[in-house]
Write a structure and sequence with these properties.
Blueprint lengths: L2 H77 L5 H4 L5 E2 L5 E2 L22 E5 L6 H15 L2 E5 L6 H12 L6 H15 L4 E6 L1 H19 L5 H8 L2 E6 L11 E7 L3 H6 L19 E5 L12 H8 L3 H5 L6
């Protein structure tokens, strides 16, 4: 067993207890959801029987009760993933212009990316990974906003939503590097392919997209070390061809090698609680934005704290060109 494999085995052993706890929690949540659904279904049957017996007198009331019961069941179902199944079919797919999707593994050069409104033939390309509760249609709007802001062609890697509860559960798994996430696999393959072809890559990520990116970058590093037999120094040097920008990222650590710029709104609870934190990572023993990273902390507070997490309304408007940001100059 080589040192990398021994390290993986040790890491897997350490996190086993945490993973089991997550699995037990998810099982309990799943059972609770099933019970609610069963209760809702039973309620619906009773309402139906009531209507059958007293249709002429109380049909309107019965329909109202049925709607309430059905609405409650749908609400629970949507929270835990049942209400956004249509978006799930796009999970991990590459997203191009006009909302068109392409299967994982499609060469980036073959995807008609979203282009700036004033430039149909940009010279650079940006990959973008979205956060939670973002449908394919919503991500398409973000791709256009990125293209207009950066002057680049933009291709999305879709991190599908299945509802708040399911998305948050996936975030926990991403934190533990547990289970599969199609967006992680697609991004890791795309990055690895581009690096091996000798091409630079520019990656942008928001919210859970930061977790997806951190996990994918670690996968690429491990693949270079294990499959290609690269030394630690050579693998990190090759990953230096990747430029990464995160916005309100939910990841607290990123592997060394890539060139990072992280944007953190102190008025945003997501990076404050789960990401690089409200203070610079050099004073935060938990956070690690990657060697040589630039972390831009700024203040934009909202009455509803989650409004401070908006990609387009908060983060994109605080972004400066990548090279400027890498120099530590965040003045607009």
């Amino acid at each position: 067993m080589n040192p990398i494999e021994r390290g993986r085995k040790l890491i897997n052993t350490v996190r086993t207890g945490a993973e089991k706890a997550i699995d037990r929690t998810q099982d309990a949540v799943g059972n609770a959801v099933d019970n609610v659904k069963d209760a809702a279904a039973a309620g619906g049957r009773k309402v139906g029987q009531f209507v059958d017996g007293f249709e002429n007198a109380v049909s309107g009331t019965a329909r109202g009760v049925g709607n309430v019961v059905g609405g409650a069941a749908r609400g629970v179902q949507e929270f835990f993933g049942g209400g956004n199944q249509p978006d799930r079919v796009h999970d991990g797919k590459l997203l191009g212009a006009d909302g068109a999707t392409f299967p994982p593994g499609t060469p980036l050069a073959d995807i008609p990316g979203v282009t700036p409104a004033n430039n149909p033939n940009p010279q650079s390309t940006v990959l973008y990974v979205n956060g939670i509760l973002t449908t394919k249609e919503a991500q398409s709007e973000s791709l256009q906003a990125i293209a207009n802001a950066t002057g680049s062609r933009v291709v999305g890697i879709h991190n599908a939503t299945e509802g708040m509860g399911a998305d948050l559960a996936q975030c926990v798994k991403d934190k533990l590097d547990k289970g599969t996430n199609p967006a992680v696999d697609t991004l890791a393959d795309a990055l690895y392919t581009e690096l091996k072809a000798g091409r630079d890559v520019h990656l942008m990520a928001h919210s859970q997209g930061g977790l997806v990116s951190s996990r994918a970058l670690n996968d690429v590093y491990n693949r270079l070390r294990i499959e290609d037999g690269m030394s630690k120094q050579d693998a990190r040097a090759l990953m230096g061809k990747i430029n990464v920008e995160t916005f309100g990222g939910a990841a607290a650590t990123y592997p060394d090698g890539p060139n990072y710029v992280h944007y953190v709104n102190r008025g945003d609870p997501v990076p404050s609680m789960f990401g690089l934190g409200p203070i610079p990572d050099k004073w935060n023993p938990i956070a690690d934005g990657g060697k040589g990273s630039k972390v831009h902390q700024f203040n934009e507070f909202h009455l509803n704290p989650f409004d401070g997490h908006s990609f387009e309304d908060v983060y994109l408007k605080n972004r400066v060109p990548f090279d400027q940001a890498r120099e530590g100059n965040f003045n607009k």
